[in-house]
Amino acid sequence: LVVMAFAVYAFFSGGPGNLQWLYPNELFPTDIRASAVGVIMSLSRIGTIVSTWALPIFINNYGISNTMLMGAGISLFGLLISVAFAPETRGMSLAQTSNMTIRGQRMG
User: Fold this and answer.
1) Average pLDDT, stretch 18-29?
2) Average pLDDT in the 9-18 region?
3) Which protein family is it in (predicted)?
4) Would the pLDDT of 108 be above 60?
């Protein structure tokens, strides 16, 4: 059971873990890329700190099932925001992604 649980975790953690490093590097122009990735990683770490602190509190107050449903809801919200606002970069060069716009606003 432990090996099976680890295998499932390893299978599903590969995507999100890699995307937080790859997508911002494709998205931002070279002149601001390091700063933009730094800000994104900092926000990611702040979210990790807050969620690690809040998890036992939520489990005690709402139970494990409701806490997991809230986590799934937050993930779904993030998915919807990403689909609505994040541009597709598949098959594009870094130069092309640097010239992209989001809803008429130039990035960078």
Assistant:
1) 75
2) 71
3) Belongs to the major facilitator superfamily. Sugar transporter (TC 2.A.1.1) family.
4) no
Average pLDDT, the chain: 81
AA identity, residue 72? A
- The Cα-based distances of 102 to 12, 44, 63, 64 in angstroms read 29, 21, 40, 38
In angstroms, rounded to a whole number, what is the distance separating the alpha carbons of residues 82 and 60?
A: 31
User: Cβ neighbours of residue 29 under 8 Å, at least 6 residues apart?
Assistant: 98, 107, 108
Domain residues for the domain of 34 are 2-106
